[in-house]
Amino acid sequence: MGYDSEGSAVTSDGVNNTAIDQRDTSPLPGEVKGDSTIDETVPAVRDLQVGAESSATSQSVVPSTIHEDEPRPPLPPRPGNLDLLQEGNYSPGSSPQRSQKSARPQLQSTATTALSRTDINTQSYQDGSRETYAASAETIPSSKPVGVFGSIKRVKGLGGSETADSASLKSYAPTLEAGGDVESLLGEVLGAYQARPAWKPLSTQYETPDPFDSVIYDDDEATVEFYREFDEVRAVNPDGENGEQQLVQWQSKRKNFLILSSAGKPIYNRHGDDNLISGYIGIIQTIISFYERANDQLKGFTAAGARFVIMSQGPLYLVAISKLGENDAQLRVQLEALYMQILSTLTLPTLTHLFANRASIDLRRPLQGTEPLLSALADTFTRGSPPTLLSALECLKIRKSQRQVINDTLLRTKCDTLLYGLVVASGRLVSVVRPRKHSLHPSDLQLIFNMLFEARGVKAGGGENWIPLCLPGFNKNGYLYMYVSFVSASESDGEEADDRSESGKQEEIAILLISANNKESLYDLLKIRDAVVDQLDKNGSMSIIKAAVRRGRSTATDIVPGTVLRHFLYKSKGNVQFTMPSYEPHFTTMLARRRLLSLYHTLHASVHAKNTHLKAHHCISHESISLAWVTPFFELYCVAGPHASRNALAQSANKVVQWVRREEERVFIIGGAVF
Amino acid sequence: MTSRVSTGTRPGARFAQFKLVLLGESAVGKSSLVLRFVKDQFDDYRESTIGAAFLTQTISLDENTTVKFEIWDTAGQERYKSLAPMYYRNANCAVVVYDITQASSLDKAKAWVKELQRQANENIIIALAGNKADLVGEHPDKRAITTSDAEAYAKGQVCFSSRHQRRRRRTFENYSPLLHESCLLNRPARGI
């Protein structure tokens, strides 16, 4: 309780009488204690106190005292400190950081987010402190006092609203198998080492308006590490001299996927080469088959802070190893997607046949060339993927009438061999034509989108491909034939591939024509494609799509003006589609997005837990307050800043639902064009 | 024959269109070869082609003559093999690529040539191309297939690398007059 007492100590110091007095909170009598725990409190609070005192006396002292409190600038990656990091994990108390941290867990238990109505000004306030934040980098002292006052105010808010908070705290429920700690909903990004110093930058929490982003200013190893998540673990030299180092690097990965055959042959692994992982493959195979022999299938276990989830699919074992805090069901969905990718390459009969012939077959040869696709999927999951989490698709938002024109164009130009025709822009569906009796399975589309927009194989080859593939959701027994053609979305129109390189993956429009098991239909599809592009150009649809792609997603505040929401996911259950606002401006970095997605994963896990029937789930953490709301028609997950009030959050959630209802035919494809 | 030879607007101008298909084992550098030809680029790391990629390139042989290539760059993996006839059936030219550092790739190339001779258009021009000459340039001991071996198989063989622009360009430009003539005169031409 050191925190609260410090908070009230600040107010009782007479700071209230100074210019900062915008608040109605007076210290609760019971809270003013003779406190001897000053040494135990977080440095930030101490600094605040000093800062506040000095601000009352003389303004000029403020910058220097506050300076202690500023987040440090990011350090460049330090490859050499990997060993140090590992030591820190395994020998607690050995490093200085460790002792620094020891004070913080205390804080965790009490420092709740201010929820009281008195905090309603925080919006404007955050702007102020954001400026401060930026200014601190440029060392403009004049704006700093604002930040000081802001901090004090919040500290007081904590004291004042404590009773209100304690009720809401009860809505917490531990949701994660792997060491889920309520306080670390977002900190779990960095795995189950909950107590890691770097991920408890509480002192900055009260200073920065964007806690999600603030973390990147910490020079902690973990952050750097996540940015290196996708670095390749280099091959172990034949003489094994660098084996140790590569092993450490391999173990530092937050997420890894392994696929092996039931005979123990490696098929795919995201990180590490054969020499490195062969031992582990053997161990995993032994563990799995041990349980299998006992007729008790092993589904998952936790070890060393990582959750292992095992899925066995016929002759294949798929293993997900995650320190990112997803639950088993969510990891299973990801494994399922990897399995679907394998089926998509081989088809189920071929896969079964290969293993029936020879159980010890090395599947990597038949799968040759599929690795980049599997890795692209795996990396999507590591970065965090709303479509996978929600098992839903995202559509490009355009007017209903505009979509109708595109649908009609596709319908007019279709021929008998066409099964599905799709227009896709930057990973979002624009239009689809399909036979009445076949719908498209989201998992199939995810595979296609992954192939086109995440893996580079198709685009690097010029953007026009003829691809035999199996869509397991449609039919896992046979191939379909897909013709893909990319059209550049950049202003300088043209189907030429040359100017495409700069536009990046965000601005790609692809026309997909899928033919039902007739590999000779290519030339028909080529004609359709030419006709479609020609028509879309003529009736202006192409420029509409391009404009919509360039515009990107709207921000949350554009959708609901003045909202406290920073981001939300809305899934329409009936349409199996979702919509979300732009990640801008709060979640611009990869890490911030990953933390946001981790929060969504947690919310998703709690409302989808098997033994509960939650309709609404409200979460408060240091970094955000969030809400998951499930009805028979939709799922809504929304996240607001840490200082937003619960009422504002609920109101915004309602407004999002109203917005979607109003714009339903724009953000979703209802029905699509059917023939 | 799907190639078209037409006179353009200018008197004496000729425009010809040819279909070209690349075949060969996976990872011999078919896509790199095409990318060098079409965009004059080279990537150190390329993902495998998925299915087959379609590209076009138009070059002027001289003032009056323009040739447009429609290129099918096929994936080399075994599982895509059944699709190959679709690409080579109407092709005017097939470039069968092997990797001079991989002995097995020449065997595969020979199999492709055999299949083409049996199944493809009888006027098809088959070019045998040994790729990755730059690797051998740096480390001569990496060469697994000598030029004379390949020559013994084909009458002539062009050895080049998609990394090295100059030689490659000459190679492709060498093809085009050849193609051109053979199609114009309808003269059966056997692969290089």
TrEMBL record, chain A:
Residues 565-664 form the FUZ/MON1/HPS1 third Longin domain. Residues 1-138 are annotated as: Disordered. It comes from the Eukaryota. It is found in: Endosome, Multivesicular body membrane; Prevacuolar compartment membrane; Vacuole membrane. Its main location: membrane. Keywords: Autophagy, Endosome, Membrane, Protein transport, Transport, Vacuole. Residues 8-20, 52-63, 88-127 have a biased composition (Polar residues). InterPro entries: FUZ/MON1/HPS1_longin_1 (IPR043972), FUZ/MON1/HPS1_longin_2 (IPR043971), FUZ/MON1/HPS1_longin_3 (IPR043970), Mon1 (IPR004353). Residues 255-377 form the FUZ/MON1/HPS1 first Longin domain. It is a peripheral membrane protein. Residues 417-530 form the FUZ/MON1/HPS1 second Longin domain. Required for multiple vacuole delivery pathways including the cytoplasm to vacuole transport (Cvt), autophagy, pexophagy and endocytosis. Belongs to the MON1/SAND family. PANTHER family: SAND PROTEIN-RELATED, VACUOLAR FUSION PROTEIN MON1 HOMOLOG. This is Vacuolar fusion protein MON1. It comes from Lepraria finkii.
UniProtKB/TrEMBL annotation, chain B:
Keywords: Nucleotide-binding. PROSITE patterns: RAB (PS51419), RAS (PS51421). Coiled coil: none annotated. InterPro entries: P-loop_NTPase, Small_GTP-bd, Small_GTPase. It comes from the Eukaryota. Gene3D superfamilies: P-loop containing nucleotide triphosphate hydrolases. This is GTP-binding protein ypt5. It comes from Lepraria finkii. The lineage of its organism: Eukaryota, Fungi, Dikarya, Ascomycota, Pezizomycotina.
